[in-house]
Amino acid sequence: MMIRMMTGSIIALAAGYMVGVAHSSYRHYFNRYADREDLTQTGPIQEVIIVGEKE
């Protein structure tokens, strides 16, 4: 029983560590190699440019 609990804890810790490393690596390389356009547009938010004013 105790060995099973220790094994489960170690597996959970290792899986969490691997997910953290994968997320950190993806974020690092995305910020390093992504185009400027990809970095500014996040999701449904878009850049709004006002071309002129109505009178």
**Overall pLDDT score:** 84
Uncertain stretches: none
Count of alpha/pi helices: 2
Order of helical and strand elements: HH
What is the makeup of the main sheet? none
| Strands, total number | 0
- The computed structural class is mainly alpha
Rg over alpha carbons: 22 Å
Overall geometric form: elongated
User: Approximately how much helix is present in the residues?
Assistant: 55-70%
In terms of DSSP E residues, the strand content is under 5%
What distance lies between the first and last C-alpha atoms, to the nearest angstrom? 78 Å
Question: What does the model show?
Answer:
It is a single chain. With 55 residues, this protein is mostly helical. Helix content is 67%, strand content 0%.
List keywords for this structure.
2 helices; mainly alpha; 55 residues; single chain
Spell out the blueprint of helices and strands.
Blueprint (H helix, E strand, L loop, with lengths): L1 H32 L2 H5 L15
